[in-house]
Amino acid sequence: xxxxxxxxxxxxxxxxxxxxxxxxxxxxxxxxxxxxxxxxxxxxxxxxxxxxxxxxxxxxxxxxxxxxxxxxxxxxxxxxxxxxxxxxxxxxxxxxxxxxxxxxxxxxxxxxxxxxxxxxxxxxxxxxxxxxxxxxxxxxxxxxxxxxxxxxxxxxxxxxxxxxxxxxxxxxxxxxxxxxxxxxxxxxxxxxxxxxxxxxxxxxxxxxxxxxxxxxxxxxxxxxxxxxxxxxxxxxxxxxxxxxxxxxxxxxxxxxxxxxxxxxxxxxxxxxxxxxxxxxxxxxxxxxxxxxxxxxxxxxxxxxxxxxxxxxxxxxxxxxxxxxxxxxxxxxxxxxxxxxxxxxxxxxxxxxxxxxxxxxxxxxxxxxxxxxxxxxxxxxxxxxxxxxxxxxxxxxxxxxxxxxxxxxxxxxxxxxxxxxxxxxxxxxxxxxxxxxxxxxxxxxxxxxxxxxxxxxxxxxxxxxxxxxxxxxxxxxxxxxxxxxxxxxxxxxxxxxxxxxxxxxxxxxxxxxxxxxxxxxxxxxxxxxxxxxxxxxxxxxxxxxxxxxxxxxxxxxxxxxxxxxxxxxxxxxxxxxxxxxxxxxxxxxxxxxxxxxxxxxxxxxxxxxxxxxxxxxxxxxxxxxxxxxxxx
Length: 631
Prior knowledge:
Blueprint: H1 2-12, H2 35-61, H3 67-85, H4 91-111, H5 120-130, H6 132-144, H7 150-174, H8 176-182, H9 187-195, H10 205-214, H11 217-237, H12 244-277, H13 295-309, E1 317-320, E2 333-336, H14 338-354, H15 360-372, H16 395-407, H17 411-417, H18 419-428, H19 448-461, H20 467-481, H21 486-498, H22 515-525, H23 533-545, H24 563-576, H25 582-593, E3 607-610, E4 613-615, H26 618-630
Antiparallel strand pairs: 1-2, 3-4
Protein backbone atom coordinates (compact mmCIF):
# COMPACT_ATOMS: atom_id res chain seq x y z
CA UNK A 1 0.00 0.00 0.00
CA UNK A 2 2.77 2.45 0.99
CA UNK A 3 4.67 2.06 -2.29
CA UNK A 4 1.48 2.32 -4.34
CA UNK A 5 0.54 5.57 -2.62
CA UNK A 6 4.02 7.04 -3.04
CA UNK A 7 4.14 6.20 -6.74
CA UNK A 8 0.67 7.62 -7.26
CA UNK A 9 1.45 10.98 -5.70
CA UNK A 10 4.99 11.40 -7.02
CA UNK A 11 3.86 10.86 -10.61
CA UNK A 12 1.48 13.85 -10.51
CA UNK A 13 2.77 16.09 -7.71
CA UNK A 14 3.55 19.70 -8.66
CA UNK A 15 4.83 20.63 -5.20
CA UNK A 16 8.53 21.42 -4.68
CA UNK A 17 10.57 18.26 -5.17
CA UNK A 18 12.15 18.46 -1.74
CA UNK A 19 8.77 17.78 -0.11
CA UNK A 20 9.34 14.16 -1.08
CA UNK A 21 12.45 13.89 1.11
CA UNK A 22 11.97 16.64 3.69
CA UNK A 23 13.58 14.88 6.67
CA UNK A 24 16.72 14.24 4.63
CA UNK A 25 17.28 18.00 4.27
CA UNK A 26 18.39 18.13 7.94
CA UNK A 27 20.23 14.80 8.06
CA UNK A 28 23.75 16.30 8.24
CA UNK A 29 22.98 18.30 11.39
CA UNK A 30 22.54 15.16 13.54
CA UNK A 31 25.05 12.45 14.39
CA UNK A 32 24.82 8.67 14.17
CA UNK A 33 21.61 8.45 12.18
CA UNK A 34 20.65 5.50 10.00
CA UNK A 35 20.00 6.78 6.46
CA UNK A 36 17.46 3.98 5.87
CA UNK A 37 15.40 5.19 8.83
CA UNK A 38 15.68 8.75 7.55
CA UNK A 39 14.32 7.63 4.15
CA UNK A 40 11.39 6.01 5.94
CA UNK A 41 10.76 9.30 7.73
CA UNK A 42 10.79 11.08 4.36
CA UNK A 43 8.10 8.71 3.09
CA UNK A 44 6.01 9.14 6.23
CA UNK A 45 6.24 12.93 6.01
CA UNK A 46 5.36 12.97 2.33
CA UNK A 47 2.29 10.75 2.79
CA UNK A 48 1.02 12.90 5.66
CA UNK A 49 1.61 16.04 3.58
CA UNK A 50 -0.54 14.54 0.82
CA UNK A 51 -3.27 13.74 3.35
CA UNK A 52 -3.30 17.42 4.36
CA UNK A 53 -3.65 18.54 0.75
CA UNK A 54 -6.52 16.11 0.23
CA UNK A 55 -8.17 17.29 3.45
CA UNK A 56 -7.93 20.93 2.35
CA UNK A 57 -9.55 19.95 -0.94
CA UNK A 58 -12.31 18.13 0.92
CA UNK A 59 -13.00 21.17 3.12
CA UNK A 60 -12.79 23.77 0.35
CA UNK A 61 -14.44 21.85 -2.49
CA UNK A 62 -16.52 19.19 -0.69
CA UNK A 63 -14.53 16.42 -2.38
CA UNK A 64 -15.72 13.62 -0.07
CA UNK A 65 -14.38 11.02 -2.48
CA UNK A 66 -10.97 11.86 -0.97
CA UNK A 67 -11.89 10.37 2.41
CA UNK A 68 -10.60 6.81 1.76
CA UNK A 69 -7.34 8.14 0.34
CA UNK A 70 -6.87 10.50 3.30
CA UNK A 71 -7.41 7.61 5.66
CA UNK A 72 -4.92 5.39 3.80
CA UNK A 73 -2.23 8.09 3.81
CA UNK A 74 -2.60 8.75 7.52
CA UNK A 75 -2.66 5.07 8.41
CA UNK A 76 0.53 4.40 6.45
CA UNK A 77 2.19 7.39 8.07
CA UNK A 78 1.39 6.16 11.58
CA UNK A 79 2.56 2.63 10.70
CA UNK A 80 5.96 3.95 9.57
CA UNK A 81 6.41 6.22 12.57
CA UNK A 82 5.34 3.53 15.03
CA UNK A 83 7.80 1.05 13.48
CA UNK A 84 10.59 3.59 14.06
CA UNK A 85 9.73 5.02 17.49
CA UNK A 86 7.38 2.52 19.12
CA UNK A 87 4.36 3.62 21.10
CA UNK A 88 6.04 5.20 24.15
CA UNK A 89 8.66 7.43 22.54
CA UNK A 90 8.97 11.15 23.31
CA UNK A 91 8.47 11.60 19.58
CA UNK A 92 4.69 11.47 20.01
CA UNK A 93 4.81 14.50 22.29
CA UNK A 94 6.35 16.48 19.44
CA UNK A 95 3.88 14.93 17.02
CA UNK A 96 0.87 16.03 19.08
CA UNK A 97 2.36 19.48 19.60
CA UNK A 98 2.81 20.01 15.85
CA UNK A 99 -0.69 18.71 15.12
CA UNK A 100 -2.08 21.17 17.64
CA UNK A 101 -0.09 24.02 16.06
CA UNK A 102 -1.26 23.14 12.56
CA UNK A 103 -4.96 22.96 13.45
CA UNK A 104 -4.65 26.21 15.38
CA UNK A 105 -3.17 27.77 12.22
CA UNK A 106 -6.11 26.53 10.16
CA UNK A 107 -8.53 28.08 12.64
CA UNK A 108 -6.64 31.39 12.73
CA UNK A 109 -6.43 31.60 8.95
CA UNK A 110 -10.12 30.87 8.47
CA UNK A 111 -10.90 33.72 10.87
CA UNK A 112 -8.80 36.34 9.09
CA UNK A 113 -10.42 38.82 6.70
CA UNK A 114 -9.05 41.59 4.51
CA UNK A 115 -10.76 44.33 6.52
CA UNK A 116 -9.39 43.08 9.86
CA UNK A 117 -6.53 44.84 11.62
CA UNK A 118 -3.86 42.14 11.34
CA UNK A 119 -0.41 42.60 12.82
CA UNK A 120 2.47 41.30 10.68
CA UNK A 121 3.75 39.36 13.69
CA UNK A 122 0.48 37.41 13.67
CA UNK A 123 1.05 36.63 10.00
CA UNK A 124 4.61 35.42 10.70
CA UNK A 125 3.39 33.23 13.54
CA UNK A 126 0.67 31.86 11.26
CA UNK A 127 3.22 31.00 8.54
CA UNK A 128 5.32 29.17 11.12
CA UNK A 129 2.36 27.20 12.49
CA UNK A 130 1.13 26.29 8.99
CA UNK A 131 4.50 24.61 8.42
CA UNK A 132 4.26 22.59 11.63
CA UNK A 133 4.38 19.25 9.85
CA UNK A 134 7.63 20.38 8.23
CA UNK A 135 9.04 21.01 11.69
CA UNK A 136 8.23 17.40 12.60
CA UNK A 137 11.06 16.42 10.24
CA UNK A 138 13.47 18.26 12.54
CA UNK A 139 11.77 16.92 15.66
CA UNK A 140 12.00 13.34 14.42
CA UNK A 141 15.74 13.55 13.77
CA UNK A 142 16.31 15.25 17.12
CA UNK A 143 14.59 12.35 18.90
CA UNK A 144 16.60 9.79 16.91
CA UNK A 145 19.82 11.55 17.96
CA UNK A 146 18.73 11.03 21.60
CA UNK A 147 17.95 14.76 21.86
CA UNK A 148 21.58 15.79 21.90
CA UNK A 149 22.61 19.38 21.13
CA UNK A 150 19.40 21.21 21.94
CA UNK A 151 20.94 24.51 20.82
CA UNK A 152 21.39 23.22 17.24
CA UNK A 153 17.88 21.77 17.27
CA UNK A 154 16.35 25.10 18.31
CA UNK A 155 18.44 26.93 15.72
CA UNK A 156 17.14 24.64 12.97
CA UNK A 157 13.57 25.34 14.07
CA UNK A 158 14.32 29.07 13.96
CA UNK A 159 15.84 28.72 10.50
CA UNK A 160 12.76 26.78 9.42
CA UNK A 161 10.50 29.55 10.76
CA UNK A 162 12.21 32.25 8.69
CA UNK A 163 12.11 29.93 5.67
CA UNK A 164 8.36 29.41 6.14
CA UNK A 165 7.68 33.15 6.43
CA UNK A 166 9.72 33.85 3.28
CA UNK A 167 8.00 31.09 1.39
CA UNK A 168 4.51 32.25 2.48
CA UNK A 169 5.21 35.84 1.40
CA UNK A 170 6.40 34.67 -2.00
CA UNK A 171 3.41 32.35 -2.29
CA UNK A 172 0.98 35.15 -1.44
CA UNK A 173 2.38 37.39 -4.18
CA UNK A 174 2.44 34.55 -6.70
CA UNK A 175 -1.06 33.29 -5.80
CA UNK A 176 -2.64 36.75 -5.58
CA UNK A 177 -5.34 36.06 -8.18
CA UNK A 178 -6.10 32.52 -7.06
CA UNK A 179 -6.44 33.44 -3.39
CA UNK A 180 -8.68 36.40 -4.24
CA UNK A 181 -11.02 34.17 -6.25
CA UNK A 182 -11.06 31.51 -3.51
CA UNK A 183 -11.61 33.96 -0.65
CA UNK A 184 -8.30 32.91 0.95
CA UNK A 185 -6.55 35.34 3.30
CA UNK A 186 -3.40 36.57 1.61
CA UNK A 187 -0.97 39.20 2.90
CA UNK A 188 -0.49 40.70 -0.57
CA UNK A 189 -4.26 41.16 -0.87
CA UNK A 190 -4.38 42.52 2.68
CA UNK A 191 -1.60 45.05 2.07
CA UNK A 192 -3.16 46.27 -1.19
CA UNK A 193 -6.61 46.47 0.42
CA UNK A 194 -5.18 48.77 3.09
CA UNK A 195 -4.06 51.18 0.39
CA UNK A 196 -6.84 50.90 -2.20
CA UNK A 197 -10.57 50.37 -2.25
CA UNK A 198 -11.11 47.28 -4.40
CA UNK A 199 -14.65 48.34 -5.30
CA UNK A 200 -13.21 51.43 -7.04
CA UNK A 201 -11.83 48.95 -9.58
CA UNK A 202 -14.99 46.79 -9.70
CA UNK A 203 -13.04 44.06 -7.89
CA UNK A 204 -11.40 43.30 -11.24
CA UNK A 205 -8.63 40.90 -10.23
CA UNK A 206 -6.57 41.53 -13.38
CA UNK A 207 -6.46 45.26 -12.64
CA UNK A 208 -5.80 44.65 -8.95
CA UNK A 209 -2.93 42.29 -9.79
CA UNK A 210 -1.28 45.02 -11.85
CA UNK A 211 -1.87 47.57 -9.10
CA UNK A 212 -0.13 45.25 -6.65
CA UNK A 213 3.10 45.98 -8.50
CA UNK A 214 2.36 49.51 -9.72
CA UNK A 215 1.83 50.50 -6.07
CA UNK A 216 5.15 48.78 -5.24
CA UNK A 217 3.49 46.47 -2.71
CA UNK A 218 4.40 43.25 -4.49
CA UNK A 219 8.04 44.31 -4.66
CA UNK A 220 8.15 45.19 -0.95
CA UNK A 221 6.74 41.78 0.00
CA UNK A 222 9.21 39.98 -2.27
CA UNK A 223 12.07 41.93 -0.67
CA UNK A 224 10.78 40.89 2.76
CA UNK A 225 10.66 37.32 1.55
CA UNK A 226 14.28 37.47 0.39
CA UNK A 227 15.36 38.90 3.76
CA UNK A 228 13.60 36.02 5.54
CA UNK A 229 15.53 33.50 3.46
CA UNK A 230 18.75 35.39 4.15
CA UNK A 231 18.05 35.22 7.88
CA UNK A 232 17.22 31.51 7.61
CA UNK A 233 20.58 30.96 5.92
CA UNK A 234 22.53 33.07 8.43
CA UNK A 235 21.30 30.92 11.31
CA UNK A 236 22.52 27.63 9.87
CA UNK A 237 25.76 29.12 8.50
CA UNK A 238 26.95 29.30 12.10
CA UNK A 239 27.21 25.49 12.09
CA UNK A 240 29.47 25.41 9.01
CA UNK A 241 27.65 22.26 7.89
CA UNK A 242 26.89 21.51 4.26
CA UNK A 243 23.35 20.21 3.87
CA UNK A 244 20.47 19.85 1.46
CA UNK A 245 18.57 22.30 3.66
CA UNK A 246 21.14 24.97 2.89
CA UNK A 247 20.88 24.24 -0.85
CA UNK A 248 17.08 24.54 -0.73
CA UNK A 249 17.25 27.93 1.03
CA UNK A 250 19.77 29.27 -1.48
CA UNK A 251 17.74 28.04 -4.45
CA UNK A 252 14.51 29.51 -3.08
CA UNK A 253 16.22 32.83 -2.46
CA UNK A 254 17.52 32.90 -6.03
CA UNK A 255 14.08 31.99 -7.36
CA UNK A 256 12.50 34.95 -5.59
CA UNK A 257 15.32 37.32 -6.54
CA UNK A 258 14.70 36.38 -10.18
CA UNK A 259 10.95 36.82 -9.69
CA UNK A 260 11.55 40.26 -8.19
CA UNK A 261 13.82 41.13 -11.09
CA UNK A 262 11.09 40.13 -13.56
CA UNK A 263 8.58 42.17 -11.55
CA UNK A 264 10.81 45.25 -11.64
CA UNK A 265 11.20 44.68 -15.36
CA UNK A 266 7.42 44.55 -15.79
CA UNK A 267 7.06 47.95 -14.11
CA UNK A 268 9.87 49.47 -16.17
CA UNK A 269 8.26 48.17 -19.36
CA UNK A 270 4.97 49.84 -18.38
CA UNK A 271 6.80 53.10 -17.70
CA UNK A 272 8.57 52.87 -21.06
CA UNK A 273 5.26 52.36 -22.86
CA UNK A 274 3.86 55.49 -21.21
CA UNK A 275 6.99 57.43 -22.19
CA UNK A 276 6.80 56.29 -25.83
CA UNK A 277 3.12 57.25 -26.11
CA UNK A 278 4.04 60.84 -25.29
CA UNK A 279 6.10 61.12 -28.50
CA UNK A 280 3.96 62.39 -31.37
CA UNK A 281 5.05 62.31 -35.02
CA UNK A 282 4.99 65.96 -36.10
CA UNK A 283 4.98 65.35 -39.87
CA UNK A 284 2.25 63.09 -41.20
CA UNK A 285 3.86 60.91 -43.87
CA UNK A 286 1.07 58.36 -43.82
CA UNK A 287 -0.54 57.86 -47.22
CA UNK A 288 -4.01 59.11 -48.12
CA UNK A 289 -6.62 56.32 -48.18
CA UNK A 290 -9.76 58.47 -48.21
CA UNK A 291 -10.80 57.11 -51.61
CA UNK A 292 -11.32 53.58 -50.23
CA UNK A 293 -15.02 52.73 -50.01
CA UNK A 294 -14.66 49.40 -48.17
CA UNK A 295 -15.23 50.37 -44.54
CA UNK A 296 -13.47 47.32 -43.11
CA UNK A 297 -10.24 48.25 -44.89
CA UNK A 298 -10.65 51.94 -44.24
CA UNK A 299 -11.24 51.53 -40.50
CA UNK A 300 -8.24 49.18 -40.25
CA UNK A 301 -5.95 51.66 -42.00
CA UNK A 302 -7.25 54.47 -39.82
CA UNK A 303 -6.28 52.52 -36.69
CA UNK A 304 -2.78 51.87 -38.07
CA UNK A 305 -2.40 55.54 -38.99
CA UNK A 306 -3.31 56.60 -35.45
CA UNK A 307 -0.57 54.36 -34.10
CA UNK A 308 1.87 55.72 -36.72
CA UNK A 309 1.17 59.27 -35.54
CA UNK A 310 1.65 58.05 -31.98
CA UNK A 311 5.20 56.89 -32.75
CA UNK A 312 3.98 53.32 -33.41
CA UNK A 313 3.87 52.94 -29.62
CA UNK A 314 1.50 49.96 -29.77
CA UNK A 315 3.55 48.23 -32.47
CA UNK A 316 6.84 48.38 -30.58
CA UNK A 317 8.29 45.42 -28.71
CA UNK A 318 9.60 46.43 -25.29
CA UNK A 319 11.58 43.93 -23.25
CA UNK A 320 13.45 43.93 -19.97
CA UNK A 321 16.82 42.15 -20.06
CA UNK A 322 18.79 42.36 -16.84
CA UNK A 323 22.30 41.55 -15.70
CA UNK A 324 20.82 38.58 -13.79
CA UNK A 325 20.51 36.96 -17.20
CA UNK A 326 24.13 37.88 -18.01
CA UNK A 327 23.21 40.80 -20.26
CA UNK A 328 25.67 43.67 -20.09
CA UNK A 329 24.16 46.83 -21.56
CA UNK A 330 23.78 50.47 -20.53
CA UNK A 331 20.03 50.04 -20.14
CA UNK A 332 17.88 47.11 -19.07
CA UNK A 333 14.84 48.20 -21.08
CA UNK A 334 15.07 47.64 -24.83
CA UNK A 335 12.60 48.85 -27.40
CA UNK A 336 12.46 47.98 -31.08
CA UNK A 337 10.05 47.87 -33.99
CA UNK A 338 12.48 47.16 -36.85
CA UNK A 339 11.21 43.70 -37.72
CA UNK A 340 7.62 44.67 -36.97
CA UNK A 341 7.72 47.67 -39.31
CA UNK A 342 9.21 45.55 -42.08
CA UNK A 343 6.27 43.12 -41.83
CA UNK A 344 3.72 45.89 -41.34
CA UNK A 345 4.91 47.79 -44.41
CA UNK A 346 4.96 44.64 -46.51
CA UNK A 347 1.26 44.32 -45.65
CA UNK A 348 0.50 48.00 -46.27
CA UNK A 349 2.20 47.82 -49.66
CA UNK A 350 -0.16 45.04 -50.76
CA UNK A 351 -3.20 46.94 -49.46
CA UNK A 352 -2.15 50.16 -51.18
CA UNK A 353 -1.44 48.29 -54.41
CA UNK A 354 -4.99 46.91 -54.54
CA UNK A 355 -6.47 50.39 -54.14
CA UNK A 356 -3.85 52.15 -56.28
CA UNK A 357 -2.84 54.54 -53.51
CA UNK A 358 0.05 57.01 -53.69
CA UNK A 359 2.48 55.73 -51.04
CA UNK A 360 5.80 57.06 -52.34
CA UNK A 361 6.55 59.48 -49.49
CA UNK A 362 5.37 57.05 -46.83
CA UNK A 363 7.61 54.19 -47.95
CA UNK A 364 10.53 56.56 -48.46
CA UNK A 365 10.13 57.62 -44.83
CA UNK A 366 9.82 54.04 -43.61
CA UNK A 367 12.78 52.71 -45.61
CA UNK A 368 14.94 55.53 -44.27
CA UNK A 369 13.82 54.58 -40.77
CA UNK A 370 14.95 50.99 -41.32
CA UNK A 371 18.30 52.16 -42.72
CA UNK A 372 18.82 54.23 -39.56
CA UNK A 373 18.56 51.01 -37.53
CA UNK A 374 21.42 49.16 -39.25
CA UNK A 375 23.99 47.72 -36.85
CA UNK A 376 27.05 49.90 -36.57
CA UNK A 377 29.69 47.16 -36.76
CA UNK A 378 31.78 45.30 -39.32
CA UNK A 379 28.83 43.14 -40.38
CA UNK A 380 25.88 45.50 -40.65
CA UNK A 381 22.45 44.01 -41.05
CA UNK A 382 19.73 44.32 -38.45
CA UNK A 383 19.31 42.95 -34.93
CA UNK A 384 15.92 42.31 -33.43
CA UNK A 385 16.90 44.53 -30.50
CA UNK A 386 19.66 46.86 -31.78
CA UNK A 387 20.50 48.09 -28.26
CA UNK A 388 21.29 44.60 -26.94
CA UNK A 389 24.96 43.89 -27.61
CA UNK A 390 24.52 40.17 -27.10
CA UNK A 391 21.99 39.85 -29.94
CA UNK A 392 23.62 39.54 -33.35
CA UNK A 393 22.13 40.47 -36.70
CA UNK A 394 19.86 37.76 -38.04
CA UNK A 395 18.68 36.51 -41.41
CA UNK A 396 14.98 36.85 -40.50
CA UNK A 397 15.30 40.63 -40.16
CA UNK A 398 17.56 40.75 -43.20
CA UNK A 399 15.17 38.75 -45.38
CA UNK A 400 12.09 40.70 -44.28
CA UNK A 401 13.73 44.06 -44.95
CA UNK A 402 15.09 42.91 -48.32
CA UNK A 403 11.54 41.94 -49.34
CA UNK A 404 10.31 45.43 -48.50
CA UNK A 405 13.13 47.08 -50.43
CA UNK A 406 12.31 44.90 -53.43
CA UNK A 407 8.56 45.53 -53.26
CA UNK A 408 9.06 49.30 -53.05
CA UNK A 409 11.45 49.15 -56.02
CA UNK A 410 14.56 50.09 -54.04
CA UNK A 411 17.08 47.48 -55.20
CA UNK A 412 19.83 50.03 -54.66
CA UNK A 413 19.18 49.81 -50.91
CA UNK A 414 19.93 46.08 -51.04
CA UNK A 415 23.14 46.73 -52.93
CA UNK A 416 24.18 49.37 -50.42
CA UNK A 417 23.08 47.82 -47.13
CA UNK A 418 22.32 44.13 -47.44
CA UNK A 419 25.01 42.42 -49.50
CA UNK A 420 27.72 42.30 -46.83
CA UNK A 421 25.66 40.54 -44.13
CA UNK A 422 24.17 38.39 -46.90
CA UNK A 423 27.63 37.31 -48.02
CA UNK A 424 28.80 36.59 -44.45
CA UNK A 425 25.74 34.45 -43.83
CA UNK A 426 26.05 32.39 -47.02
CA UNK A 427 29.78 31.84 -46.65
CA UNK A 428 29.70 30.98 -42.93
CA UNK A 429 26.31 29.75 -41.81
CA UNK A 430 24.95 27.39 -44.45
CA UNK A 431 24.75 23.68 -43.59
CA UNK A 432 25.27 20.89 -46.15
CA UNK A 433 21.59 19.90 -45.73
CA UNK A 434 20.46 23.35 -46.87
CA UNK A 435 19.70 24.71 -43.42
CA UNK A 436 20.87 28.25 -42.72
CA UNK A 437 21.67 29.37 -39.20
CA UNK A 438 19.64 32.28 -37.91
CA UNK A 439 22.45 34.52 -36.66
CA UNK A 440 24.90 36.36 -38.93
CA UNK A 441 28.34 35.96 -37.37
CA UNK A 442 31.57 34.97 -39.14
CA UNK A 443 32.95 31.64 -37.95
CA UNK A 444 36.61 32.72 -37.99
CA UNK A 445 38.37 35.78 -36.57
CA UNK A 446 35.49 36.70 -34.31
CA UNK A 447 35.69 39.85 -32.22
CA UNK A 448 35.25 39.61 -28.47
CA UNK A 449 31.64 40.76 -28.82
CA UNK A 450 30.96 38.21 -31.58
CA UNK A 451 32.35 35.47 -29.35
CA UNK A 452 29.90 36.55 -26.65
CA UNK A 453 27.06 36.63 -29.19
CA UNK A 454 28.03 33.13 -30.33
CA UNK A 455 27.86 31.94 -26.72
CA UNK A 456 24.43 33.48 -26.23
CA UNK A 457 23.24 31.91 -29.47
CA UNK A 458 24.34 28.50 -28.25
CA UNK A 459 23.04 28.80 -24.68
CA UNK A 460 20.00 31.09 -24.81
CA UNK A 461 18.36 31.35 -28.21
CA UNK A 462 19.49 28.36 -30.22
CA UNK A 463 21.55 28.80 -33.36
CA UNK A 464 19.08 27.31 -35.79
CA UNK A 465 18.50 26.55 -38.55
CA UNK A 466 14.87 27.47 -37.93
CA UNK A 467 12.65 26.40 -40.79
CA UNK A 468 10.40 29.47 -40.91
CA UNK A 469 13.46 31.75 -40.79
CA UNK A 470 15.18 29.80 -43.58
CA UNK A 471 12.03 29.98 -45.73
CA UNK A 472 11.65 33.74 -45.16
CA UNK A 473 15.29 34.42 -45.98
CA UNK A 474 15.39 32.17 -49.05
CA UNK A 475 12.23 33.81 -50.35
CA UNK A 476 14.07 37.15 -50.30
CA UNK A 477 16.92 35.61 -52.32
CA UNK A 478 14.37 34.21 -54.78
CA UNK A 479 12.89 37.68 -55.25
CA UNK A 480 16.25 39.43 -55.44
CA UNK A 481 18.23 37.17 -57.79
CA UNK A 482 17.00 33.59 -58.23
CA UNK A 483 19.71 32.81 -60.79
CA UNK A 484 22.67 33.99 -58.73
CA UNK A 485 21.47 32.19 -55.59
CA UNK A 486 19.98 29.14 -57.32
CA UNK A 487 22.18 26.62 -55.48
CA UNK A 488 21.30 28.00 -52.05
CA UNK A 489 17.60 28.19 -52.89
CA UNK A 490 17.40 24.60 -54.13
CA UNK A 491 19.33 23.18 -51.16
CA UNK A 492 17.27 25.12 -48.64
CA UNK A 493 14.00 24.02 -50.20
CA UNK A 494 15.09 20.42 -49.67
CA UNK A 495 15.76 21.27 -46.03
CA UNK A 496 12.35 22.92 -45.72
CA UNK A 497 10.56 19.93 -47.26
CA UNK A 498 12.18 17.56 -44.77
CA UNK A 499 10.94 19.73 -41.91
CA UNK A 500 7.29 19.50 -42.96
CA UNK A 501 5.17 17.74 -40.34
CA UNK A 502 3.41 14.58 -41.43
CA UNK A 503 0.11 16.39 -40.87
CA UNK A 504 1.10 18.97 -43.46
CA UNK A 505 2.09 22.08 -41.49
CA UNK A 506 5.46 23.57 -40.59
CA UNK A 507 6.30 24.29 -36.96
CA UNK A 508 7.96 27.57 -36.05
CA UNK A 509 10.74 28.17 -33.56
CA UNK A 510 10.10 31.89 -33.13
CA UNK A 511 6.35 32.18 -33.77
CA UNK A 512 3.22 30.88 -32.10
CA UNK A 513 0.97 28.36 -33.79
CA UNK A 514 1.36 26.53 -37.08
CA UNK A 515 -0.01 29.03 -39.58
CA UNK A 516 2.77 31.60 -39.80
CA UNK A 517 5.47 29.03 -40.56
CA UNK A 518 3.18 27.18 -42.97
CA UNK A 519 2.41 30.38 -44.87
CA UNK A 520 6.07 31.39 -45.09
CA UNK A 521 7.02 27.97 -46.47
CA UNK A 522 4.10 27.81 -48.90
CA UNK A 523 4.86 31.29 -50.18
CA UNK A 524 8.28 30.06 -51.26
CA UNK A 525 7.03 26.75 -52.68
CA UNK A 526 4.40 28.64 -54.71
CA UNK A 527 7.19 29.55 -57.12
CA UNK A 528 7.85 25.84 -57.63
CA UNK A 529 4.28 24.62 -57.31
CA UNK A 530 4.43 21.97 -60.04
CA UNK A 531 7.54 20.36 -58.61
CA UNK A 532 6.28 20.23 -55.02
CA UNK A 533 2.53 19.80 -55.58
CA UNK A 534 2.23 16.88 -53.12
CA UNK A 535 3.79 18.80 -50.23
CA UNK A 536 1.69 21.85 -51.04
CA UNK A 537 -1.49 19.80 -51.16
CA UNK A 538 -0.69 18.22 -47.78
CA UNK A 539 -0.36 21.68 -46.25
CA UNK A 540 -3.58 22.93 -47.82
CA UNK A 541 -5.44 19.84 -46.62
CA UNK A 542 -4.20 20.45 -43.08
CA UNK A 543 -5.34 24.08 -43.21
CA UNK A 544 -8.78 23.30 -44.63
CA UNK A 545 -9.37 20.46 -42.15
CA UNK A 546 -8.39 22.62 -39.18
CA UNK A 547 -10.79 25.44 -40.04
CA UNK A 548 -13.63 25.91 -37.55
CA UNK A 549 -17.28 26.11 -38.53
CA UNK A 550 -17.32 29.88 -38.22
CA UNK A 551 -14.42 30.16 -40.69
CA UNK A 552 -11.76 30.89 -38.09
CA UNK A 553 -8.49 29.25 -37.08
CA UNK A 554 -6.66 29.16 -33.75
CA UNK A 555 -2.99 29.01 -32.84
CA UNK A 556 -3.40 25.81 -30.81
CA UNK A 557 -6.02 23.07 -30.80
CA UNK A 558 -7.39 23.94 -27.36
CA UNK A 559 -7.41 27.71 -27.68
CA UNK A 560 -10.05 30.08 -28.96
CA UNK A 561 -10.10 31.43 -32.47
CA UNK A 562 -7.89 34.39 -33.28
CA UNK A 563 -7.61 36.82 -36.15
CA UNK A 564 -3.85 36.40 -36.62
CA UNK A 565 -3.98 32.64 -37.17
CA UNK A 566 -7.00 33.08 -39.42
CA UNK A 567 -5.21 35.72 -41.50
CA UNK A 568 -2.12 33.56 -42.06
CA UNK A 569 -4.27 30.52 -42.88
CA UNK A 570 -6.22 32.68 -45.33
CA UNK A 571 -3.02 33.98 -46.95
CA UNK A 572 -1.89 30.37 -47.45
CA UNK A 573 -5.17 29.36 -49.07
CA UNK A 574 -5.15 32.38 -51.39
CA UNK A 575 -1.75 31.39 -52.75
CA UNK A 576 -3.29 28.39 -54.50
CA UNK A 577 -7.10 28.48 -54.41
CA UNK A 578 -9.68 30.59 -56.17
CA UNK A 579 -11.24 33.38 -54.14
CA UNK A 580 -14.64 31.72 -54.54
CA UNK A 581 -13.42 28.75 -52.49
CA UNK A 582 -15.68 28.08 -49.49
CA UNK A 583 -12.82 28.04 -46.96
CA UNK A 584 -11.59 31.39 -48.21
CA UNK A 585 -15.07 32.90 -48.13
CA UNK A 586 -15.72 31.70 -44.58
CA UNK A 587 -12.34 32.95 -43.31
CA UNK A 588 -12.91 36.39 -44.86
CA UNK A 589 -16.38 36.52 -43.38
CA UNK A 590 -15.03 35.68 -39.92
CA UNK A 591 -12.35 38.38 -40.14
CA UNK A 592 -14.80 41.01 -41.32
CA UNK A 593 -17.19 40.24 -38.48
CA UNK A 594 -14.48 40.12 -35.80
CA UNK A 595 -13.12 43.62 -36.43
CA UNK A 596 -13.33 45.89 -33.40
CA UNK A 597 -15.42 49.08 -33.67
CA UNK A 598 -12.18 51.08 -33.37
CA UNK A 599 -10.83 49.43 -36.51
CA UNK A 600 -8.33 46.94 -35.09
CA UNK A 601 -8.34 43.19 -34.76
CA UNK A 602 -7.62 41.75 -31.33
CA UNK A 603 -4.00 40.84 -30.87
CA UNK A 604 -2.80 37.33 -30.03
CA UNK A 605 0.61 35.87 -29.23
CA UNK A 606 2.84 36.18 -32.29
CA UNK A 607 6.60 36.23 -31.64
CA UNK A 608 8.17 34.22 -28.82
CA UNK A 609 11.59 35.70 -27.99
CA UNK A 610 11.54 34.41 -24.39
CA UNK A 611 9.50 31.85 -22.54
CA UNK A 612 6.35 33.33 -20.98
CA UNK A 613 7.00 36.72 -22.60
CA UNK A 614 5.22 36.75 -25.96
CA UNK A 615 5.10 39.70 -28.32
CA UNK A 616 1.67 40.63 -29.64
CA UNK A 617 0.27 43.76 -31.23
CA UNK A 618 -3.10 45.09 -32.36
CA UNK A 619 -1.39 47.20 -35.01
CA UNK A 620 0.58 44.37 -36.56
CA UNK A 621 -2.35 41.95 -36.36
CA UNK A 622 -4.53 44.53 -38.10
CA UNK A 623 -2.00 44.99 -40.89
CA UNK A 624 -1.69 41.25 -41.48
CA UNK A 625 -5.48 40.84 -41.54
CA UNK A 626 -5.81 43.70 -44.03
CA UNK A 627 -3.23 42.05 -46.28
CA UNK A 628 -5.09 38.74 -46.12
CA UNK A 629 -8.32 40.46 -47.17
CA UNK A 630 -6.70 42.42 -50.00
CA UNK A 631 -4.39 40.01 -51.82
